[in-house]
Amino acid sequence: MSRLLPMLLALLLAGCASSSPREPPRELDFPFAPEATLRASAQALMAKGYVVRYADADLGRLEAVFSRWPGYRVLVEVSGEGEQSRVSLAATRGGRPLPPQTLDSLLVEMQDRLGMWR
Fold this sequence. Notes:
Elements: H1 4-17, E1 26-30, H2 34-47, E2 51-56, E3 61-66, E4 72-81, E5 84-93, E6 96-97, H3 104-113
Antiparallel strand pairs: 1-5, 2-3, 3-4, 4-5, 5-6
């Protein structure tokens, strides 16, 4: 019995430490240069109250956080060449992945900032 209790405790803690499955990122192609697309994503996130913690135009990456409980984090990756780019968005809330469709409003905001609806 004395050996069983530590083994059960170890199994329970191992279950807590396992990572949750990642949601696939939300992706969309834009007819704009990667730099412009990354800038539009930063502007759209800041307009929604996010704070950009990290941005690197050379790598095409951006991380923004919203500190209200339970804590939101958005990761943006932009790739492409010339006047074509692909943006990939992933988000977490409280460390857990959010469904990709929750990022649709951000993609619409980016399209608007880039002038796709004019």
